[in-house]
Write a structure and sequence with these properties.
This protein has 96 residues and is of the alpha+beta class. 22% of the residues lie in helices and 8% in strands. The protein has a three-stranded antiparallel sheet with strand order 2-1-3. Strand 1 and strand 2 (64-65) form a beta hairpin. The N and C termini lie far apart (38 Å). The relative contact order is 0.19. The mean pLDDT is 83. The protein binds zinc ion. Residues 58, 60-61, 63, 77, 79-80, 82, 84 line the site of zinc ion.
C-alpha cells in the first residue's frame, strides 16, 4: 500500500514556490484576464527596461496602461476602474 505524501499533482507548478511576500496579495496568474498573455507582458517589460515607456496591465480587464512604474501595484485602471493595474516588470516576475 503506497502512501502519497509530498508532491501534490493537483496543483500545477509555475516553476517556483509561492514564497512571494510583497505585502499586498497578488492576483494569481491563473486568474488574470485572458487577454493578458505572457507574450504581451514580456514585450511590455522589455520596452520598460530598454525604452522610455512605462506600461502596466490591468489583471481584471487586460487593459494596457501607460505611466506605470515598473513595480506599480494596485493602480486604478483607467478602463474598468478596478485597482488591478500592475507594472509590466512586476507582472513578469510573477510569470518567470
Ligand atoms: Zn481594467
Amino acid at each position: 500500500m503506497a502512501t502519497i505524501t509530498g508532491t501534490d499533482p493537483l496543483f500545477p507548478s509555475f516553476g517556483h514556490d509561492d514564497e512571494v511576500d510583497h505585502g499586498t496579495p497578488f492576483v494569481a496568474v491563473s486568474s488574470w484576464h485572458k487577454s493578458l498573455t505572457v507574450k504581451r507582458v514580456m514585450a511590455a517589460a522589455e520596452r520598460q527596461m530598454f525604452g522610455t515607456d512605462n506600461p502596466g496591465f490591468c489583471t481584471a480587464c487586460g487593459h494596457e496602461q501607460d505611466g506605470c512604474e515598473p513595480d506599480a501595484r494596485n493602480y486604478e485602471c483607467e478602463s474598468c476602474g478596478e485597482p488591478s493595474v500592475y507594472g509590466a516588470s512586476e507582472l513578469l516576475m510573477e510569470i518567470v
